[in-house]
Amino acid sequence: MFLRKTVLADRVFAKAASWGLLILCLFCGKLKLIFETKAGWYTLGRWNLLCAHRIVSIIYIVGIFIFATYFIYRRRRLNKFVKGLDKATSCGFDNEIRKYPGTISPFCIGCIHPIIVIPEKLDVQNALIVIKHEETHIKLGHLWIIAGYDMVRCLLWPNVFLHIAAKYIKRDLEDVCDAVTMQMNGIDPFDYGESLLANAREIMLSRKNMKCEEGFLFAWDDNYKVLNKRIHRILERNGYNRKVVLAGGVLFIMALIASIFGIKCFSYKRNNPLDISGIYSMTKMDTVVQDTEEKVVTGYDGDYIYIDGEALKEAYPDAEIEEQPLFVFVGGYYKIPGVGGGGGWGEFSASDIKDGVFRIENHDDIDVWNWMIMWL
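and the corresponding structure tokens:
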């Protein structure tokens, strides 16, 4: 938001590309500095304490489903509306075109099967400009970008800034589309601007809201100043060097990929072995031995857990007088500190304790669910 308002304000392609920086945010959740530095912990890490509460987790998951349902409903409602319109006569265009019998801002919708909607009474010259504009949106993949962004909004819905930014992303993509449409089709900026104004005027006079936010609206924005700036950018257009733009795009994508790899190098792995074991007392209802140096629990494999009896009695002298079984937990994994599971466990009674190393059966808790979590 800061970049598009300052250094990138007059750079159409760079401003739109800057939104790609949001992709990096999706990979920053496991950065070690969040959990292993004071600054990281006090600014970001402590959110994990809040999110660890079950009620917060439930609210978050329910929120994802609510937002997903809302976005799907809006898209289906618009698709149903569009499918009910009459098809326009094909004039050699690549995509299906439908006509609306009234005043509406031309728009396109549909990632897999794109459809362009135009008002029925649009004259031929304006219709050609509008259709070329919407086809550019489709060819540049803008519909896929917005669909992907809506998915991110569903997953990270508590982030208010993602919802605020949605309309700004569309505005920046509209600017890109304007520039590409005019240059690729040789459209005069004054004719293009006149078509945009004519459509905007019709919509403002009709004062209709067709609720087509899921598509790219050619001439409608809720802010007059934004439309005014867009017209000025169109009229002041000097063209662009396609090779320079493509080279810049490739370099930006390479920089993003390199940044993602850099972030992952300084982040926790997908799953990390939990090199810790302990002994839990049913009598005291507490962990009585926390073994991080393999002194008490000397090792374990898929079948057995090995315990040093002498080290156990030294670490927990009451072990030999315990009336209830003692439980041993070993291994496991963690995604980030505090989030993990799995591992193995075993039990033994006071009578099983020997002076040397003795073994007990290892019950492995790594099930299908744990394997799924480890893979994610």
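(Above: one complete record from the training split.) The radius of gyration is 30 Å.
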